[in-house]
């Protein structure tokens, strides 16, 4: 049935249900969502979330490194592949722990993807709706 009622139908039903009845789906069913404090990750980690959100599909770590370098995110002082992968691990590790990204190994390739929680947090940071240590983080 949901929250939509034909004109005149709810008053008739309300009378038969008693005085404690509320309109299903009406304004009385709105629930305030709790607010959570989220520690803002480093700028590099936020850039990592943005890069993953733009690609949508699972992205190999090598492609993620390329996307971050293309966006101008400094990863490592050296261009050595090992240094780049270590720097990427420092960005992705905390995001994995928080559940904002997921990782899957396929053969010898690790694929990374942003999760729904990660998208929500990224959207919140961008809109300035996510609190960081008790204060609202300004969006970009």
Descriptive notes:
The protein has helices spanning 9-17, 43-55, 61-70, 81-98, 116-127; strands spanning 59-60, 101-106, 109-114, 131-132, 135-136. It is of the alpha+beta class and 140 residues long. The strands form 2 sheets. A 3-stranded antiparallel β-sheet has the order 1-3-2. Strands 4-5 form a two-stranded antiparallel sheet. Strand 2 (101-106) and strand 3 (109-114) form a beta hairpin. The longest helix has 18 residues, at 81-98. Mean pLDDT is 75; it is low at 132-140.
- Overall CATH class of the domain at 43-136: Mainly Alpha
SS-based structural class?
Answer: alpha+beta
Average pLDDT number: 75
Tell me how many strands there are. Answer: 5
Q: Write down the overall geometry.
A: globular
Describe the sheet with the most strands.
3 strands, antiparallel
Rounded radius of gyration (Å) = 23 Å
SSE ordering: HHEHHEEHEE
* pLDDT < 50 stretches: 132-140
Report the β-strand fraction as a percent range. Answer: 5-15%
Quote the CATH topology of the domain at 43-136.
Arc Repressor Mutant, subunit A
* Number of helical regions: 5
Distance from first to last alpha carbon: 41 Å
The CATH superfamily of the domain at 43-136 turns out to be Winged helix-like DNA-binding domain superfamily/Winged helix DNA-binding domain
CATH architecture of the domain at 43-136: Orthogonal Bundle
Helical residue percent?
40-55%
Strand order of the largest sheet: 1-3-2
């Amino acid at each position: 049935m949901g929250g939509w009622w034909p004109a005149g139908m709810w008053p008739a039903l309300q009378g038969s249900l008693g005085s404690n009845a509320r309109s299903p789906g009406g304004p009385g069913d709105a629930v305030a969502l709790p607010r959570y404090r989220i520690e803002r990750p480093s700028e590099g980690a936020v850039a990592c979330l943005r890069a993953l959100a733009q690609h949508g599909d699972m992205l190999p770590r090598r492609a993620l490194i390329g996307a971050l370098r293309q966006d101008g995110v400094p990863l490592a002082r050296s261009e050595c592949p090992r240094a780049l992968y270590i720097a990427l691990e420092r960005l992705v590790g905390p995001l994995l722990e928080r559940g904002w990204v997921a990782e899957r190994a396929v053969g010898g390739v690790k694929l990374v993807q942003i999760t729904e929680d990660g998208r929500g947090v990224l959207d919140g940071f961008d809109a300035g709706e996510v609190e960081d240590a008790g204060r609202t983080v300004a969006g970009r």
